[in-house]
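Deliverable D4.2, example record:
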Amino acid sequence: MSTNYTEVTPQPKRKTAFSYHDYFFRLIRLWPLFLFSLIVCFIAAYIYLHYYTIPAYHVGAKILIENDQQSGSQSSAQLNLDNLLGTTSGVDNQSEVLKTRSLMEALVRDFKLNIMWYNVEPLREIEIFNGPFTLTFNGITDTLNRSLVLNMIALDSAKFNMVYTNANQEEIVLQNVPFNSPFELPGYGAFTMSRTLGKKLPASGEEFKIKILPFDDAVSSLRSTITTNITNKLTTIIDIQMDCALKSKGEFLLTRYIDQYIKQNIQNKSRVADSTIAFIDQRIVLVNAELNGIEQKIQQFMQGKGLTNISAQSQIMLQRDNEYLKQIEDVEIRMEVMRAVDSLLNVPGGKSLISGTVLNNGLSDQAFNAMISNYNGLVLERERLLMGYRANNPVVKNVDQRIISVKDNIFEYIKNTRNSLEINKQEIERSATSVRGDIREVPEQERAFLDLSRQQQLKQELYLFLLQKREETALANTSSIAGITILDLPKADKSPFSPKSSFIWIGSLIVAFLIPTGKVFVSDSLNTKIQGRKDVEDRSPAPVIAELGHNYTGKELLEFESSRSVLAEQFRGLRTNVQFLLAEEGSKVVLLSSGMPGEGKSFTALNLANVFAHSDKKVLLMEFDLRKPKLSRTYQSE
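Output generated by the structure prediction step:
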């Protein structure tokens, strides 16, 4: 017996690839899950933003650091005392000063910032600032060694309850504690709770949480919130920023922080000014003593040299020297006149007249001039007599005797006068020599005087400079100007920088889309079953001739006479495809098999034979499962 088989040509195996189109439509079919996850994520984001997280705000301010020193404002010949003391500082230094620990320590100590109050809510604790109560630590050191958390429950206007956990993790309850009365917390110290004036009393039973930090921890925590920035290196403007959960608290603290910085700057300048004044006072005393010493040296020098005014006295000595020279010249002239007259009168037999020039040069000696005039008169008289008498005439001889007598008198007078003139000349020369010696000493005296005067002038200028600087420093100190101008007062941003609400909403939207997408991805990753026709076509070269759904009717044999169910229509489609494949004569045998039991071999064979039988075909259904037959029982029972 020969059997003909129809060979079904297998299709080439297609490369499996991810299909965005199919994946997208699978996601579209999950739109209810998308909507549900979107609503849940938006609700979670709203709860997170409004009931869980605590927003934080940037509080900013701008200050201008004024430069006290202007370049070129002082003479190069003067000592710049500010540079000598090193009191100048740049804007970079001031930016670092703004972040110093001492500023924050003063702020924490003044306003007790290590004690923080919170309103207790179901999901979070909201900090409150300048609340209705004030807690004061009565310890000596004004701080604790470790953190402390207190729960305070206001009962009424006079009493409250306090709950805390001690070092042994035991809950301690203090009941009916009165306000304004010290109470002891073992292991921590004594405290006093008081009501804040002007604040409304909270409702009875309202709970507050109090966190008390060690002083150093509070200072470090607040310091970390302060940042400074110099946006433009060409200016002296500093941007100060503080991060805080409360706008009012941040603005208040930053304002007080800047005030503390200005106060400290004024104190530093006052301290520098005080030390500068003390230094100047010491220098003034020293310079004054040196100036007095130099003035005493000048006084002793002037008194020792007999000087009052060197320049004027030098002029006087020069005039006196000139006068001595003139006197010596006059004396020498007179002596020369005397010598000339003497030589003229000593000529043997000479009875000539003496020139009038001699008389003119001897104007200061009237007696000598009178004798010369008398002598000339007698000579003229003798010459007149010789015109009428002989030389031996008694008259002429009488005149000759008189001429000889006058000559003798002149000679005697010349001798005496020359001796007196010589003595006078020597005295004048001694005086002139003394004056010239004084004149020669004038440069040395003037040089010594100039040295002392120069020292006196330098010390005097330094003394006046120190007095001027002392007054300037004192005026600057009394003015109490820190050289700092607040350009922008502390102001908090309108929107918080943390959390970023836009990021939270966008993140919730992304998570809402990731949930269905993740579901599809996880389902595909964990799926080990065939979900549809495409799975077979992508993974096998065998053609698919029909798709059969699951049977949920509970019957093994389907109704094909009047049924229009999906499964019945799928079997009818399978029948049509099988008829198309088995169109040739002798190719009417169909074998159904699978690798594992329970995969629908009997169900498919039974209903395929049934659907062929309903189309008036003769069908022979053969069962080859000899170990566990099922078709016979099912067909007979149904």
